[in-house]
From TrEMBL:
One GO term (biological process): lipid biosynthetic process
Single annotated GO MF: oxidoreductase activity
Main location: membrane
Gene Ontology cellular-component terms listed: membrane
InterPro entries, per database record: Fatty_acid_hydroxylase, Sterol_Desaturase_Related
Family: Belongs to the sterol desaturase family.
A Pfam family annotated for this UniProt entry: FA_hydroxylase
Source organism per UniProt: Lactuca virosa
Protein name: Fatty acid hydroxylase domain-containing protein
Domain Fatty acid hydroxylase positions: 131-265
Keywords recorded for this protein, A-Z: Membrane, Transmembrane, Transmembrane helix
Amino acid sequence: MLPYASLQDAETAIGRSLTAAETFWFNYSATKSDYFLYCHNILFLFLVFTIVPLFYVFIELLFSKNVIAYKIQPKVKFSFADNLNCYFDVMRMFLLVVGPLQLVSYPSIKMIGIRTSLPLPSLMEIISQLFVYFLVEDFTNYWIHRFLHCKWGYEKIHKVHHEYTSPIGYAAPYAHWAEVLILGIPSFLGPAMVPGHMITFWLWIALRQIEAIETHSGYDFPWTFTKFIPFYGGADYHDYHHYVGGQSQSNFASVFTYCDYIYGTDKGYRYQKKVLEQLRDGKGNDGSNASGQDIKSE
């Protein structure tokens, strides 16, 4: 709740006139508790999980012939019912785990200093903090993901997520309840290290989930803006990890690829891409008719 009785009080405290965005924020949040504002995360996550994957569902059902060239595993088909069943599984986890976790985690948000006050952060402040959040989450997630691929971690927890050897958008958060809890830690570390405004926190949670949905979409479109982000993995990169499944010791990165490159856990993927390129160019070493999927062995 903002500590100002009026717009004039807020402008006096800040020492300048409020921007249009700050005026809107004042009118919306002035009488609302910080806890109520934080709980907006539940609504945003629900909307992201529900709406964003629909894009990929519709293009596969309505324009499959037009986009087949961009489907990473073109032989795998998912019906609308398949997507709906996955959505309901995810929503069950959302209601039983994600939602309650959001409701009880507010004290930690207050402790690290996420603010709701005026002035609002500048665009550069938001972008720089989001950049840090993505880097911290990506690095931490890489090591947790590698741990989940050890024999115990995979058999007890992570194999649920790998039930989709050809991932779909709705399967991005599809996982064992313990994995949902564990992977909440990397998402929290960035804001804990560089606390910002609640608006930045909302954006971070929403963008991270949108990125995960794109990564699990099963489509590698050449026109997406993420193609211009350095070291961004994307759907093709993560799809390889899902196809290989429990045996995979490659492509653990959640967003960027630098950890896989530094620690040598992208060798299988890079070898597969090299061989596919040779096959397309008619330069196969043994003249065999091996397909791309046949050589995904690491």
